[in-house]
Amino acid sequence: GAGVSQTPSNKVTEKGKYVELRCDPISGHTALYWYRQSLGQGPEFLIYFQGTGAADDSGLPNDRFFAVRPEGSVSTLKIQRTERGDSAVYLCASSSTRLADNEQFFGPGTRLTVL
Amino acid sequence: KQEVTQIPAALSVPEGENLVLNCSFTDSAIYNLQWFRQDPGKGLTSLLLIQSSQREQTSGRLNASLDKSSGRSTLYIAASQPGDSATYLCAVRPVISSGSARQLTFGSGTQLTVLP
Hints:
By secondary structure, chain A is mainly beta. Chain A has strands at 5-7, 10-13, 19-24, 31-37, 44-50, 53-56, 65-68, 75-79, 88-95, 105-106, 110-114.
């Protein structure tokens, strides 16, 4: 595709439920990032993939959060036992490590609301 | 730990005015700095990327400067228009020393309103 896409655009769930958020990166981009943005704040890093492996997951807030990228393209962010504090916009970005500047391109985000 | 600060948090200007948005960061060991635009309810659009070896980048009415040693960047918008109204975010990327540490650290943004 032309850009990074994310689905769903909006997700409303109840406290304690499980959710999955999907990211389709730009074709050919080997690096993929997940960020979380709370209202009035800048995005905060969650996890970074290089290919299929998580190269850095130091931003995941706790073990309820997990992400996969099994074939090195699409990634899924999984949140177990959701809490109201998980409500935020979840942004995905991708970049090509072949380019010197490694510019990151962002998707439109998924707005998660936990009731 | 890198910290990025943007001042002011909000700015309102009349159409046609030139303006400057400020960004400061605490750790000068950066690989590059990006300025983004974010419209309400939307994702981030990259405006300008400055490599650590560069002093400035220009795109149309936008000019971004970087003073790495003092930990500062500015985004200059010339002849502002109502369509420029959005939140502007700056983000820094650390020096790449391994396979990790590629993530961006963002400021909280400056919410710009250009009045017609």
